[in-house]
Amino acid sequence: MRGIVGYGTYVPYYRLDRAKITAVMGAGGGRGHRSVAGYDEDTTTMGVEAARNALRGSTVTPSSIWFATANPAYLDKTNATAIQAALDLPQETWAVDAGGSARSAEAAISGARGTPGISMAVISDLRTGNPTSNDESGGGDAAAALLFGDDEDAPVIAHAIGRAAATGEFLDRYRLPGENASRIWEERFGEQAYLTLAEDAIERAVKEADVTLEDVDKVVIAGLHARAVRSLSRIAGDKLVDDLTGRIGNPGAAQLPLLVASALDNAAPGETILVVHLADGANANVLRTTDAIADYTPFSSVESQIENGSDNLDYNLYLTWRGFLDREPPRRPDPDRPGAPPAFRSEDWKYAFVGSRDRSSGAIHLPPMRVSMDGGAVDDMERVRMADTPATIATFTVDYLAFSLSPPTVAVVIDFDGGGRFQAEMTDVDPNEVKIGDRVEMSFRRLFTAQGIHNYFWKARPLAE
Amino acid sequence: MASHGIKDQVAIVGMGCTPFGEHWDKGADDMLVDAAHEAYASAGVNQDDIDAFWLGTMGSGVSGLTLSKPLQIDYKPVSRLENMCATGSEAFRNACYAVASGAYDVVMAIGVEKLKDSGYSGLTGSRPPSDGTDSSLTAPATFSLLAPAYAHKNGLDDETMKEVLTRIAWKNHKNGALNPRAQFRKEVAKETIAGSPLVAGPLGIFDCSGVSDGSAAAVIVRAEDAHRYTDKPLYVKALSFSSGPATGALDPSYDYTTFREVRASAEEAYKQAGINDPRSQIAMAEVHDCFTPTELVLMEDLGFADEGTAWKEALNGTFDLDGDLPVNPDGGLKSFGHPIGASGLRMLFECWLQLRGEAPPERQIDSDKTLGLTHNLGGQPGACVSFVSVVGSEIG
Asked: What is residue B192's predicted lDDT score, i.e. its pLDDT?
C-alpha cells in the first residue's frame, strides 16, 4: 500500500487583522485575519520550514522533492534545489519544481505519490493583491509538505482509495509574469464552470472508491474561487473541514495540502475523507486513514502554528513587505550580492547550517573551520548540522542603522544546546522583548535580495513552546 | 623565538595633525599635504630629508601613490598599510621598525581618511565577494553587544549602565571642548547624551564617535639622533599588535565583556616598556573610544581598573582630565570622529603635546609621570586587531 507516511505544515508568524485594511484605506478588509509571510520569507523559505517540520515528525529520508508554488522566488532557476540543500539531503535526491498556477499543487502531489521510494511534495504560496482587493484581504501565506511512501518504508497513515480529475479551459483568474496581483473574471461565470467540473470529478472518484457521499466522514474543499468553494460546500454539510480562511486566509496553491494536513491532525483510524481542489478544473480524492494514524504525531499541528502567531502586524508594514510601499532607505550602502562561487563552496553552511566539530577537542565551529579554535588541529573535523538544535541567547543588540526591509535588525549571540556558538539575526520577534537567556531555534530565511540574487541563510527565532 | 621590542631605539621628533571634521573643502590629498608639512616643520626637516614613508589609509586610496603623488615625493619608498581601524597605528609601528633596523635614518608615518565624501551614515567598507552569510551588523551594533553583557556580568541595572556610558561620553566631550583640532568642540549635557536617539542597543547617537575627515603624521629617527631635531623627543617604549583568531562569535567561553586581543597587546606592551602597574605609572592614555562601552571595557583590559570596577571608576572621575589617570584628554574619537587611517597618529599627537608640556594650558595634564599610552582597535568584540604603544619623554 502506498500513501501518506508523514506531513508538515508552516504558517508564518504574522497575521494581518483585516479591519486594519479598512481603517487605513476606507475600503477593503473585512473580519478576521490573514497570515503574512515575514519580510524575510518567500515561497522557498516557507517550503523549507514545512518540509523540516515533516521530516522532524518522521524517521524517513525522501529521495525526491516535488516543489510547487504559484509565486516562485526564481524563474529559470529551480527553487526545489534550495529546499533540497536546506534539508541537507544528498546529491542523489531528485528535486524539481512545478509551478505557476495553484493547480500545480496537484502536479507535485501526484508526482510524489507516483515516484517510487519516499517522495515529498512541498507546496508553498505567498498571496498578494492590490490594496483593498479581495485577494489582499482573503489571501494567505503558508506551506505544507506531504511525504509519500510504501508501508515497507514507513507506516502509511492515509491513502487514496479513489481519484478523479476534470480539466476545464476557461478564464477564472490569471496573472502575467511579473505582476503582483491577479486579475479575476466575473465570479458568477467561474462558479458555474467549477460546479459542473466538480460534480463530474467527485462522482467518478467516489465511484472508484466504492463509497457514497453518505459514507464520507469529512470533506475538504480547497480553491481560490471563493464563490465556487462556498457553493460546493453545501454537499458537505457538517462534515466540512474548516478551511481556515477566517483565521489565516486562503494560501492559494498551499491550501489543498494544508487542509489535508489539518484534517489528518484530527483524524482517527478508518476515516474516509473527500478532498476536492478547484483550480482550472476539479480534482477529487477519497482518502482513507489507517490504524497507523493513531500512532502518528505531527511535529507541529496546523492549529498550534495558528495559535503561535502574532496579530500585531500593522498594515503599513504589510504593504512595505509586499512591495506596495517604498520607504526612505537608511543612508547606508545597499547590501552586496552573494557571489555564486563562494555560495557554492559553502553550500553545507549557507543552506544546511552545517558546521564542523573538531574530532579531538569536540569544539563546534559555526561557520565550519579547517583549523580548530581549540587545540589547533588541522583538517580533523566532522560535519555537524545545527539547524534543528535549540539555543539560548548569550547577548543581543538592536541595530537601528543596518540595512533592512523592516528595521530595526535584532542580532543575538546564541549558544546551542550541547555546544556551538553563533551570532545570528533574529526574526519573528518584538525587539523590546528580547532577553539574555531566551530560548531560540533556527529558521531558514531570505536575508535580502541584491541584483537579482536571493540571499538565503538561517536566522534565529523564538523557540516554539 | 621571542618578541623583544625596540624600547628607546627610536624617537618621534616632529608631528603634525590637521583639524578633524567635515572638510567639504579638502580632499585626502589636501589633508596629507597639510599633515606632512606640519610634521616637517615641527621636526625642522624638508621632504628631501625623509628616506621612506608609511601611509595608513583604509579606503582613501591604494598604493604608495596615494601619498607620493600629492606630496610629489621623488622616487622614495612609500608603503601603504591597512589594518582596519588600527591602520594609523600600524603605519607608525612599521615605520619605527624600519628605523630600528638601521635601514633608514629618517622616516615618516602618516595616516589619512576622507570619510565625508561617501554620503553614508557611519563607516562603510568594501568586502571581497562572499557567500552572503557574514553578519550585516553595523559597527555600533557589534560594539553595543558589550553593554548588556557587561551589565549582566557585574550586576548593573539598565539605568546604572546608561549612567556609566553617558558619563564616558560626557567626559570625552568635555575634554574635546578644550581642543581646537577636535570635530566637536562643545560640552554636551548628560541629559542630551542620555536622551539621544538610539542607534544600536542601548547606544544613542552620543555614545558613538563621529564621522570626520583628518590626517596626522610623525617624523621618526633613531633615538641617538633625536636631539639633532628637537630638545624634547618622544621615545618609543613599546609597540605591540595583536590579531585574534576571531572566535568570539564561535566560542561560548567568550562573554563579550573583554577584548582578548587588547589584553594580549597590553601585556606585550607593558613587558616591552617595563611597566608593571599601568594605573600608577602612566601619565595619560589615548584609547579607542569608538563607542562608550568600548572605553569602559578597555579600562579593565588595559589594566587601568580592576575587573568589574571600571564602571565605578568611570563614575568617580578616575579617568577625567584631572583624575588619577586621564584617558582621552584630547577628547578621543568621541570628539574627533574616526578618520580611520589618521586616528592612531592623532592619539600619538596628543601624547606629543602632553608629555612635552605643549598642550594648551586649559587641558595640559599636571603630572610628574613621563609615559603616555595609545591604544587603537579594529574589528569588533570577539574578532579584532589591537595595537598598544607606550611613548615617553625620557630615556630609560
From this structure: 98
Co-location of B54 and B164 in the same domain = no
Q: Which residues 410-449 in chain A show a CB within 8 A of chain B?
A: 411, 413, 415, 419-423, 425, 436, 447
What is the C-alpha separation between A65 and A80, in angstroms, rounded? 7
A52 and A65 Cβ atoms separated by less than 8 Å: no
Residue of A nearest to B136 (CA): A402
**Type and span of the H or E element at A206:** helix A187-209
Instruction: Give the pLDDT of residue A328.
Output: 85
For residue B168, pLDDT beyond 90 = yes
Residues of chain A found within 8 Å of residue B141, distances taken between Cβ atoms: 397-399, 401-402, 409, 411
- What one-character-per-residue DSSP string does A156-189 give? --EEEEEEEEEE----SEE--TT-SS-EE--HHH
Same-domain check for residues B165 and B84: no
pLDDT of A464:
86
Cis (ω within 30 of 0) for the bond into A408?
yes
Instruction: Give yes or no: residues B350 and B280 share one domain.
Output: yes
pLDDT of B127: 82
Of A267, A273, A254, A271, the residue nearest A296 (C-alpha): A267
**One domain for residues B263 and B219:** no
Report whether pLDDT(B136) > 90. no
Helix or strand run (H / E) with residue A108: helix A104-114
User: How confident is the model at residue B126, as a pLDDT?
Assistant: 76
Q: A104-114 vs A255-265: helix axis angle to the nearest 10? A: 60
All structural domains of chain A with their residue ranges: 2-321, 348-462
Domain CATH code at residue B174: 3.40.47.10
Q: What is the mean pLDDT of chain B?
A: 96
Residue A185: its pLDDT value, please? Answer: 95
Distance of alpha carbon B369 from alpha carbon B284, whole angstroms: 9
Establish if A27 touches chain B: CB-CB under 8 angstroms: no
The strands making up B383-392's β-sheet, listed across from edge to edge, are B78-81, B52-56, B106-113, B214-222, B10-17, B234-243, B383-392, B371-380, B284-286
Q: Are A420 and A314 in contact (CB under 8 A)?
A: no
Residue of B338, B351, B375, B384 marked catalytic: B338
* The CATH number fitting domain A348-462, selected from 3.40.50.10540, 2.40.50.840, 3.40.1000.10, 3.40.50.970: 2.40.50.840
Q: Report how far apart the first and last C-alpha atoms of chain A are (Å, whole number).
A: 36
Gap between the Cα atoms of A176 and A236, Å rounded: 35
pLDDT score, position B63? 97
pLDDT beyond 80 at B125: no
CA distances from B230 to A144, B16, B45, B227 (A): 79, 14, 11, 5
Does residue B160 share a domain with residue B62? no
Between CA A249 and CA A261 the distance in angstroms is 16
Q: Which of residues 319-338 of A touch B (CB under 8 A)?
A: 330-333, 335-338
Q: Which of A336, B392, A89, B108 is nearest to A81 (CA)?
A: A89
Confidence bin at B119 (pLDDT 50/70/90): confident
Interface test with A, best of B131, B142, B199 (most A CBs within 10 A): B131
Q: Give the domain extent around B29.
A: 10-119+213-234
Q: Which residues does residue B85 pair with via DSSP β-bridges, in sequence order?
A: B83
Bridging pattern class, strands A409-416 and A391-399: antiparallel
> Global pTM?
0.94
* Answer CATH for A2-321 from 3.40.1790.10, 3.40.47.10, 3.40.50.620, 2.30.40.10: 3.40.47.10
Helix or strand or coil: residue B238?
Answer: strand
ipTM summary value: 0.90
Interface check for A342 against chain B (CB to CB < 8 A): the answer is yes
In chain A, which stretches have pLDDT less than 50?
none
Comparing C-alpha atoms, which of B186, B145, B209 is closest to residue B343?
B209
